[in-house]
Amino acid sequence: MMNRVKVRLLEIARRKERLIARAESQRLAIAGSCRPLQGPIAIVDRGVMLTRYLRGHPLLVAALVAAVVIVRRRGLLSLASRALSVWRIWRTLSAWPI
């Protein structure tokens, strides 16, 4: 009687080892087939993170929309010339001793 129990436990242990080895090989196969998707998934993940950030900062979104509207109305060249003028004034004023 005890011998049958030992034989049965040994069979169960062997089956467990085979199942563990099979599961490991399946995990490796799945990992190998998912590897090409890592790049696109990372891009989507960054997009989701950006969306969450923007949802948490509505004033930043409003400022970005306002900037786009200003650039479209005035034109990029006009805005660039104003930025250059401001930069020149700042450079001149920052050179003065205080």
Shape: rod-shaped
Structural class: mainly alpha
* Unreliable stretches: none
Report how far apart the termini are: 100 Å
Q: Report mean pLDDT, rounded to a whole number.
A: 87
Q: What is the H/E order? A: HHHH
How many helices? The count is 4
Rg estimate, integer Å = 32 Å
Q: Helix fraction?
A: over 70%
Strand percentage, roughly? under 5%
Multimerization state: single chain
Count of DSSP E strands? 0
The profile of the biggest β sheet is:
none
Task: Record the SSE blueprint.
Layout: H1 2-34, H2 38-56, H3 58-74, H4 76-95
Short description:
With 98 residues, the chain is mainly alpha-helical. The chain has helices spanning 2-34, 38-56, 58-74, 76-95.
Structure explained in plain terms:
By secondary structure, this protein is mainly alpha-helical. The chain has 4 helices and no strands. The chain has helices at 2-34, 38-56, 58-74, 76-95.
Annotation keywords:
98 residues, mainly alpha, 4 helices, rod-shaped
